[in-house]
């Protein structure tokens, strides 16, 4: 008793703060974050510490999801506003109501929103995509691409659309999400699951990517070909493509771009316009120079929403391909940079969602969708400001167009679906829980700091006490060895009786030592 009291006195008490209470757990969490440099804990450290929840979902999953949703809503709402601002004059000149294009764009956004909600509530959607749905969706998109060559509409020297009466469908836009699903399936089967060999993987990848690109190049649509090629290459690199093969693909893409410009004189002319748009300001450089003038007219803070002058039948396709020029004039440099920042935050949150995915397939789908949106945004923006040749690609979520809006919303829905399926418990999580003393639900609850072995039951042996846990009921202590038995001593430092085992035989002083016979109740190894 005396020794126990001394030991309690020597045990340091927790340091109290100015209010008389122990420091909050957030101080300990802050110290841990500083020690680890803010990195996410892994393995057993995560299982032992309760995660902070947001609406019942771990914060590491919910935080990027909320950021992505907020950016998505902001971009779609801003796109509707800018479509109305850029198209009201053109709609009135065409004999429509000033809100004609706004109403149609709102319907497209509503249809995309419905698709997102449907994808969010279908259970195990990615499992269906991976098992049997990816290739059929790819096949539907391929059939639509083939139909373009037969019954497609011609506009601007290209045959890319199918008239459906109420709107014109561009199948190459719908191919993007379908192709991402197929490529993610093939990459996960080859790199992660090892379910297919290199020959099968190469053959299926060539069919999945090469066949649709043939139809797209025939249209012709070099911009979509570039976007799809860069997306597939990035997905392969993120899945584990060796660097030497990555460099080879980059060289192939570069050579293909040069050959495409040589094969079509108008592509070479666009490249020359990019180099010097003022060489022919009333001819090939007309749109490029007007876009530059719009940005210059906007200045630092812009002319205000609705006050653009470039949209008054000066700049063709002001509400479509060149809507960024209207944004630059009405919002100025500051507003345009803020718009870029919101889109960059959307892409960043998409990659954070991908990093939390429980499966390789889900991670690759989210990364592929993010890459498509980012590449298409850059192709349009850099083309308008004169860094790259203009290819006629729309600005995701902003430019007017039913196919573009629906395809962009589908890509956003796949990213959100990846975030939702990150909450699912994998087989490995369940096995870790079966090995743990406490389940994940008990972490951070009233069990912390208490014994999980059950109520202690003391039993007496020669000279000291043994406390059995919940699983030791009914066991009896083995008799003490005659040579090792010692009288009881006060305090907690009495000699431990190891019993008649091999250690005692090694300690014996000669062959004349007679061992006590074993009892019918054998000692368990956990009683030592």
Automatic annotation (TrEMBL):
Record's compositionally biased regions (Basic and acidic residues): 1-35
Catalytic activity as recorded in UniProt: [GlcNAc-(1->4)-Mur2Ac(oyl-L-Ala-gamma-D-Glu-L-Lys-D-Ala-D-Ala)](n)-di-trans,octa-cis-undecaprenyl diphosphate + beta-D-GlcNAc-(1->4)-Mur2Ac(oyl-L-Ala-gamma-D-Glu-L-Lys-D-Ala-D-Ala)-di-trans,octa-cis-undecaprenyl diphosphate = [GlcNAc-(1->4)-Mur2Ac(oyl-L-Ala-gamma-D-Glu-L-Lys-D-Ala-D-Ala)](n+1)-di-trans,octa-cis-undecaprenyl diphosphate + di-trans,octa-cis-undecaprenyl diphosphate + H(+)
Enzyme class label: transferase
Region (Disordered): 1-44, 447-528
Superkingdom of origin organism: Bacteria
UniProt KW keywords: Cell cycle, Cell division, Cell membrane, Cell shape, Cell wall biogenesis/degradation, Glycosyltransferase, Membrane, Peptidoglycan synthesis, Transferase, Transmembrane, Transmembrane helix
Pathways per UniProt: Cell wall biogenesis; peptidoglycan biosynthesis
Membrane topology of this protein: Multi-pass membrane protein
EC number, as in UniProt: 2.4.99.28
InterPro entries reported for this sequence: FtsW, FtsW/RodA
Compartment(s) where it occurs, according to its Swiss-Prot or TrEMBL record: Cell membrane
Transmembrane segments: 66-86, 106-126, 133-154, 174-192, 213-239, 245-264, 322-348, 360-385, 397-416
Xref: Pfam families: FTSW_RODA_SPOVE (PF01098)
Function in brief: Peptidoglycan polymerase that is essential for cell division.
Annotated family: Belongs to the SEDS family. FtsW subfamily.
PANTHER family (UniProt xref): CELL CYCLE PROTEIN (PTHR30474), PEPTIDOGLYCAN GLYCOSYLTRANSFERASE FTSW-RELATED (PTHR30474:SF2)
The protein, known as: Probable peptidoglycan glycosyltransferase FtsW
Organism field: Collinsella ihumii
């Amino acid at each position: 008793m005396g020794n126990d009291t001394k030991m309690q006195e020597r045990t340091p008490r927790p340091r109290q703060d100015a209010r008389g209470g122990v420091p909050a757990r957030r101080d300990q969490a802050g110290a841990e974050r500083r020690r680890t440099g803010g990195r996410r804990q892994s393995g057993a450290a995560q299982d032992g510490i309760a995660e902070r929840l947001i609406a019942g979902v771990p914060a590491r999953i919910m935080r990027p999801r909320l950021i992505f949703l907020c950016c998505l809503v902001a971009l779609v709402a801003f796109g509707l506003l800018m479509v109305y601002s850029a198209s009201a004059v053109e709609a009135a000149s065409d004999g429509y109501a000033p809100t004609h294009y706004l109403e149609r764009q709102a319907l497209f956004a509503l249809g995309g929103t419905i698709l997102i909600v449907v994808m969010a509530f279908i259970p195990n959607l990615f499992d269906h995509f991976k098992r049997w749905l990816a290739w059929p969706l790819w096949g539907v998109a391929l059939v639509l691409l083939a139909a373009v060559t037969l019954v497609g509409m011609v506009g601007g020297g290209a045959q890319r659309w199918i008239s459906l009466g109420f709107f014109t469908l561009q199948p190459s836009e719908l191919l993007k999400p379908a192709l991402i699903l197929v490529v993610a399936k093939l990459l996960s089967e080859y790199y992660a699951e090892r379910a297919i060999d290199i020959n099968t993987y190469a053959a299926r990848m060539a069919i999945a990517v090469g066949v649709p690109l043939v139809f797209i190049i025939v249209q012709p649509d070099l911009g979509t070909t570039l976007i799809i090629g860069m997306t597939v290459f990035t997905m392969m690199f993120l899945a584990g493509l060796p660097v030497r093969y990555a460099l080879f693909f980059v060289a192939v893409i570069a050579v293909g771009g040069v050959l495409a410009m040589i094969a079509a004189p108008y592509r070479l002319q666009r490249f020359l316009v990019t180099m010097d748009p003022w060489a022919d300001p009333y001819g090939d450089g007309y749109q490029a120079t007007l876009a530059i003038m719009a940005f210059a007219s906007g200045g630092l803070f812009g002319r205000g929403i609705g006050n653009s002058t470039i949209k008054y039948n000066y700049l063709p396709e002001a509400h479509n391909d060149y809507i960024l020029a209207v944004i630059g004039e009405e919002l100025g440099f500051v507003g345009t940079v803020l718009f870029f920042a919101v889109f960059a935050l959307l892409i960043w949150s998409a990659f954070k969602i991908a990093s939390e995915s429980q499966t390789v397939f889900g991670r690759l789908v989210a990364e592929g969708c993010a890459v498509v949106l980012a590449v298409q945004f850059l192709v349009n923006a850099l083309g308008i400001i004169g860094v790259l040749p203009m290819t006629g690609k729309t600005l995701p979520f902003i430019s007017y167009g039913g196919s573009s809006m629906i395809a962009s919303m589908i890509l956003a829905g796949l990213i959100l679906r990846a975030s939702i399926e990150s909450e699912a418990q994998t087989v490995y999580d369940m096995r870790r829980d079966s090995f743990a003393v406490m389940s994940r639900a008990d972490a951070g609850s009233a069990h912390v700091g208490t014994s999980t072995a059950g109520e202690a039951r003391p039993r007496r042996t020669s000279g000291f006490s043994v406390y059995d846990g919940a699983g030791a009921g009914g066991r009896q202590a083995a008799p003490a060895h005659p040579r090792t038995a010692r009288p009881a001593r006060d305090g907690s430092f009495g000699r431990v009786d190891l019993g008649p085992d091999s250690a005692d035989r090694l300690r014996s002083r000669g062959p004349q030592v007679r061992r006590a016979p074993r009892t019918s109740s054998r000692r368990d190894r956990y009683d030592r």
